[in-house]
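Hi there. Long-time user, first ticket. I'm pasting a complex I've been working with (about 229 residues overall). I'd like to know whether the download I got is complete or cut off, because the file seemed smaller than I expected. Thanks.
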Amino acid sequence: EDQVTQSPEALRLQEGESSSLNCSYTVSGLRGLFWYRQDPGKGPEFLFTLYSAGEEKEKERLKATLTKKESFLHITAPKPEDSATYLCAVRSYGGSQGNLIFGKGTKLSVKP
Amino acid sequence: GAVVSQHPSWVICKSGTSVKIECRSLDFQATTMFWYRQFPKQSLMLMATSNEGSKATYEQGVEKDKFLINHASLTLSTLTVTSAHPEDSSFYICSVQTGAPYTGELFFGEGSRLTVL
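Hi, the file is complete. Here it is re-exported in full:
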C-alpha cells in the first residue's frame, strides 16, 4: 500500500534558523513526489515536483531533494511569512492520474 | 500553473439539505478535474475524478449518489453534497492537472468549508 509519512508533525524555528522537513514514502513505482504549502483555511499551493532520485529543486529559501525512500524540504534562513503547513504527496504507477497520496503535513512556525 | 477558483469559500447548512460547490479553472481548459476532501489534522483524500462530458469516477468508499459531480464544460465542475449530514462537514478542495496525464502537476483551489448543523 502506498504511504507517505511526514516528520516532524510540528516545527518551531526562530527567524533565520535553518532546518529540514522530512517526507518518507513507500510506493509501487514513483511517478512523482510533490511538495505543497498550505495556509490555514486555504487550498494547497504548489511548490515543487521531483521525479527521480538525486533530483533537486530550489525556490527562494526552499530546496527540495529526493532519494529512493525520502524527500527533504530544506528551509534556509526562514522568515515569519514561511509559517504554514507543508504537505508532501506522491503519485504512483498504481494509482489514478489524480490520486496523489498525501502525508499529514508538517506545521512550521517561524518566530521573529 | 493553473488558477483554480472555488465558490463558496464556506457554507453552513442544515442536516438533510443539499449544497453545491463550484470549481472553475480560470486560465486552463481542464478536461479532468479532481475533488479532494480534508478532515481536520488529516491528509487530503481524493474523492473523485471529474471528466468533462462524461460520468465522474469515484474512489473506493465514496458514495456517488451522495456526492454528485457534474463537469459540463472545460472550465467548470460542480460537487453537490446531497442530504448532507454532520459527518459530511469537511474542507472540500478541487484541483486541475496541467501537462500530460499521470505526470503533470496538480493545482488546487482555495477550498470550500462545509459545516452541516
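A couple of notes from our side: The two ends of chain B are 36 Å apart (CA to CA). Chain B touches chain A through 28 residues (CB under 8 Å).
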